[in-house]
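Contributing new records

If you add data, match the layout below exactly. Sequence lines come first and carry their own label; structure lines follow with theirs. Keep one chain per record. Anything else will be rejected by the validation script.
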Amino acid sequence: MQLQKAQRKKTKIKMAIQGSSGSGKTYSSLLLAYGLCKDWTKIGVIDTENGSADLYSHLGEFNCVTLQAPYSPENYIQAIDLCVKSNIEVIIIDSISHCWDYLLELHSNMTGNSFTNWGKINPKQNAFINAILKADAHVISNMRVKQDYVLTQKEGKYVPEKIGLKAVQREGVDYEFTIVFDINSKHKANCTKDRTNLFLNQPEFIINSDIGAKILKWCNETSISNINSFTIPS
């Protein structure tokens, strides 16, 4: 064990896009992926959305691997390994929500103590997330969202109150990603997490390949001072 000076190194982006059905997660992730590598043949989509990526095959000759139930972490990891071994430069996982739904169902069907059983489920989830983070490729993870509610007390009664959209994945999974984009029903995105500072205080925008190219530049820079400020294209 020893201390050493922090040093900026080239990196692979690990980012997430979250939005409701029809918001444009698949299309947006494909445009981002092209901006990250400028070669459709180097893009691989791990598809759990009934072939939704095939609807955009006119964009370019990207690759797909279709996952079908069961959407276990092990099957996702196998698909990620396949992409890496096939020299894919950008992996799109569309979506990682299916994995969490699988684990929730697995947990609900287990006998015994619920708390103890989570000790068996969490390592599976952790292995899946680690496979994303350690993959030698850029990874874009799409997540479905659902309306989230809390119970609030009004006039002596508890009533449900909408508090926004919540990703269908383990609580706090966004901490694992460098960038998180939220896409609304009008296909406009805002950045809710950004360790790159590229999108700080930017208004809503439509995702395109230029944004992917800017992220790639950030990944390849060995000195932050060389990165110019970025204005979202109109």
